[in-house]
Design a protein that fits this description.
Distance between the termini: 30 Å
Strand order of the largest sheet: 1-2
Radius of gyration: 29 Å
Structural class: mainly alpha
Shape: elongated
Number of strands: 6
Largest sheet: 2 strands, antiparallel
Number of helices: 32
């Protein structure tokens, strides 16, 4: 792979400039669609264009080719010009079965059926020629949707954009299926994903434990196995986004226990499509979160000691409302002096700290008893009322400048940790900030780093009311995030300031899933991803702090910051990470990730038939990896680079597509998700 090494220096300079693209925008150059408009009247009609294509296939010429088959408003009417147009597309766009020639009784028949609105086997039955490279409807449909080899259609680009935002990586088969499905495609796909059952990661840990000891590596493996191989892609993608908002990490001492980390992620997966209020309660009682933020065994105050404030502070600051009052469009409320209005003060933090007292491991009658079995490491915490604060507790105000909610003092006999927890979480849940705060975070993690105020406002409205009077319905929120005009309109997506940098773990997952990576062992051994030298500088569930791998408000120097925009993922995009990730992914693309039977090897079967045509390799990749939009310069550079590999030797085909994948993996069009 000498060509990869020679290209390295230039690619690194290219990637380092990607920050400019968020501020300036990327102008795409989608190709034209299938050339079926034979009479050039701006429309495609089976009884005009289709008939002429079929007649030409049977050898008709002159007036008999066009007689009675020219549509209204036709501008290409001369039979000679019509024939020339058809002949120019015969062996390229009209060869639907890909056997190298156009036949009226195979390709022509399929084109006519397709123009009449048929789909599936109704198009292909009895109409596939001999030695086809596209032998079935899936392949033929993909060719049609891909503009008959001229570039991805609007439907394909819509499909791949959704799957990029909402899964761990689009597969070509899924793109074709979604693009060819009846409208409304996005809504229907989301509904189907909501109906899929989740998978408990704890079950994997139990199964592994039965075979021997388990470790954090097993939690990581379970995460990646479901992210890449699971059918419930939307659930897994949203759960990962939630793990970057309600953060727990295995990097803290004591949290390397796989029962803890897998149990924590199960809470997120289970509630990803539920209600945010339920999620707040379950995450508060989750032992991993309680150990991470120190509210397990958090004892009531004494004359010389106050309860631990860690979780009280972070559930407000990071997990629900933020530090300043927000308008429903996500912008800060300002006072008369244009200063942001704080959502809480130290008295409120101390009040919530008292709320979170009296909670300990399940499964024992003794306070703070170290678990003797595995169950307490993932089962919800239990209340010990005798350890719960009985003081009054100041909570949040639900209006700017309004009076705080106060939980009254209790007695030793009436102390009730669960009652106080219910009231306190209700107080947080009903704060007006939660909708815009959580909605904006999900938009940033799934769609674009700088959402418009209108986009945030529309998502926040669905949090406040799902349309049936229910607050906090995550399904309504997720649907709003993914179906909003700002998420789906391709013209908006190409505007200045739109898009997000794909974080390293997502880029890695996209590549592995898009190319069906598998290991002989069946394992998902991605244990070194977090290593800045030998990985990609990010491992899910291993954030260094409660603030996630990067701040949602990080604004990098240069064009992004100068334009008042944020680029959160750039905070971990160091020059070292760019180079090492590029090098490590080159190795993964060429030989797989890992070693021996555990090596995850990418499947390039779909690219094998395209090896002789650099432009077709690039066309395929720019759809599944580049969302179907690429600058003319990038396209030309990729085609040229791939074409420099001569068609000699035993590995020239593989060298071509591996080089193309590596170039695109490092290109602005891939690195910046639009």
């Amino acid at each position: 792979m000498r060509h990869l090494v020679l290209a390295g220096a230039r690619l690194r300079r290219w990637v380092l400039g990607t920050a400019l693209l968020i501020a300036a925008g990327v102008s795409g150059s989608p190709h034209a669609q299938c050339s079926f408009d034979v009479d050039a009247n701006g429309g495609i009609d089976a009884l005009t264009d289709g008939i002429m294509i079929l007649r030409a296939g049977f050898g008709l010429t002159g007036p008999t080719l066009t007689q009675g088959a020219l549509g209204t408003g036709a501008t290409r009417t001369d039979p000679a010009l019509v024939l020339a147009f058809i002949n120019a597309n015969k062996t390229t766009q009209y060869d639907l079965d890909g056997n190298g020639s156009f036949d009226a009784l195979t390709d022509g028949l399929m084109i006519l059926r397709y123009m009449f609105g048929l789909s599936g086997t109704s198009v292909t039955n009895g109409a596939i020629g001999t030695n086809p490279t596209r032998p079935d409807w899936t392949a033929v449909n993909g060719f049609l949707l891909n503009g008959c080899g001229t570039g991805p259609s609007v439907q394909l680009r819509d499909a791949v954009r959704l799957l990029t935002q909402a899964t761990w990586g689009p597969k070509q088969s899924e793109v074709n299926t979604l693009a060819g499905s009846p409208p409304p495609q996005v809504d229907n796909w989301i509904t189907q994903q909501f109906a899929l059952p989740g998978v408990n990661h704890i079950d994997w840990i139990i199964a592994r434990d039965a075979l021997g000891s388990v470790s954090t590596s097993d939690s990581i493996e379970s995460f990646w196995m479901q992210a890449l191989a699971g059918n419930d892609q939307l659930r897994q993608r949203v759960a990962y986004a939630l793990s970057q908002i309600l953060v727990v990490s295995d990097q803290k001492d004591g949290l390397g226990n796989p029962w803890l980390i897998s149990g924590y992620f199960d809470v997120l997966s289970r509630n990803a499509f539920g209600n945010f209020r339920t999620l707040l309660e379950e995450i508060t009682k989750n032992p991993a979160m309680a150990l991470w933020l120190d509210h397990i065994c958090n004892d009531k105050e004494t004359a010389t000691r106050l309860p631990n404030e860690n979780y009280a502070r972070e559930i407000l600051q990071l997990f629900s409302i933020g530090t300043v009052w927000l308008n429903q469009d996500g912008t800060p409320m300002l006072d008369a002096q244009n200063n942001p209005l704080p959502t809480y003060d130290q008295n409120v933090v101390q009040g919530f700290a008292k709320v979170f007292t009296g909670w300990s491991y399940s499964g024992s009658a003794n306070w703070c008893a170290y678990p003797a079995t595995d169950l307490p490491w993932y089962a919800p915490l239990v209340a010990f009322n005798n350890r719960h604060s009985i003081s009054s507790k100041q909570l949040l105000s639900l209006t700017p400048g309004g009076a705080s909610v106060v939980l009254p003092a209790q007695t030793a006999q009436t102390a009730n940790a669960q009652a106080d927890l219910t009231a306190a979480l209700d107080n947080i849940f009903n704060h007006p900030n939660v909708g815009p705060y959580i909605g904006k975070q999900l938009i940033k993690l799934l769609v674009t780093s700088n959402p418009s105020p209108g986009y945030v406002s529309r998502v926040a409205a669905k949090f406040a009311n799902n349309g049936s009077g229910v607050r906090g319905d995550m399904q309504a929120v997720i649907r709003a995030v993914l179906t909003d005009t700002d998420a789906r309109d391709q013209a908006i997506a190409q505007g200045a300031g739109y898009g997000k940098l794909r974080e390293p773990a997502v880029r890695f997952g996209n590549l592995m899933r898009t190319f069906h990576a598998t290991a002989v062992s069946g394992r998902y051994s991605f244990y070194t991803l977090g290593d800045p030298l030998y990985g990609v500088n990010q491992q899910p569930l291993s954030s260094p702090t409660v603030f996630n791998f990067y701040s949602p408000d990080f604004s990098p120097q240069g064009a992004v910051g100068a334009n008042g925009l944020v680029g959160p993922e750039f905070e971990i995009t160091t020059s070292t990470a760019i180079v090492t990730t590029s090098n490590n992914m080159k190795n993964a693309i060429t030989g797989g990730w890992g070693s021996g039977a555990d090596a995850m090897v990418l499947d390039y079967a779909a690219l094998a038939p395209l090896a002789a045509s650099p432009d077709q390799i690039v066309d395929y990749l720019w759809l599944v990896m580049g969302n179907g939009v690429m600058t003319p310069t990038t396209y030309a550079q990729m085609v040229s680079a791939v074409g420099l590999i001569p068609q000699t030797g035993a590995n020239w085909q593989a060298d071509r597509w591996k080089l193309a994948i590596w170039i695109l993996f490092n290109s602005p069009e891939y690195v910046i998700q639009r």
